[in-house]
Each structure stands twice: as structure tokens, then as C-alpha cells.
Prior knowledge:
This protein is α+β, with helices and mostly antiparallel strands. About 35% of the residues lie in helices and about 30% in strands. The strands form 2 sheets. A 5-stranded antiparallel beta sheet has the order 3-2-1-6-7, with no helix packed on it. A two-stranded antiparallel ribbon has the order 4-5.
Amino acid sequence: MEGLKVEWRRTDTKALVHLYQDGESRAEVQQQDYHDRAHFFTDQIQHGNFSLLLENLRAEDEGKYACKVYRNQRQVFSINRNLELRLVDTVFNLQMFLVVCPNILMFLAFVLWGVSEGSLFESASCSALYFLRPLMLLWAA
């Protein structure tokens, strides 16, 4: 497509993530951090798809990105996107699962032990400790 230029930039650092100009991707002008990681769907341009694929995501990739499309050096389209990495949430949920589940199981085990053995005071004390332990860990965190 004649006279088409598409650029993806980080809006917070003004870094050039990817540039498509004169019918080809121009990797030589993009910032070094994005070499071999930022790809453009050149076969989808005729359908109006100017999407960017960013591979091997890093924590520092999180931020705001802007896509600007120029036709004959005149801006015809612009969009801003925010990239948020969700891996941290997944790891946190896994850690919470590993902290809470064993304590809940021990709580239930002591309740059942107390009911079967008849020593309710001892089982109530032990089960209360295992019930409160995840709450104390959350409070400390």
C-alpha cells in the first residue's frame, strides 16, 4: 500500500516499538529492547488490521502503547492501549491456595478428631489455630 506508515510507540517512554513503512517492517529504527520480539501482521493490513504481536513479555513491557496510522504523511487513525501483565495475579492466587488449603484441611481434621475422640476443648483449640493462621498471614502480608 503506497504511502502507508504504521508506528507503535510506548506513550510513557516515547520508545518506538515497531514501524511499518514503504511496504515493510523497519526493524533497524525500532528500540533495541523490541528487536525480534515485536511483530506486525503485514498480511492483514489490507483488512485494516494493524495489530502488534509482542513476544517474550517482560515486566518492563507493562505500560501504555499507541498505534498511529499515516496515509501520505497525514494521520488517519490513532488508538491507545494499555498492557497489563496478569502473571503476578496468577502467582499470588497459587500462593494463597497453597497457604489456605492445607490450613483448612487441618482445621477440618482437628474438628473430626475432636468429635470422634470426644475431647472437644483440645480439638477446638487446635482447629482455631489452623483457622486463624491464614488470616494472620494475610494480615501480615
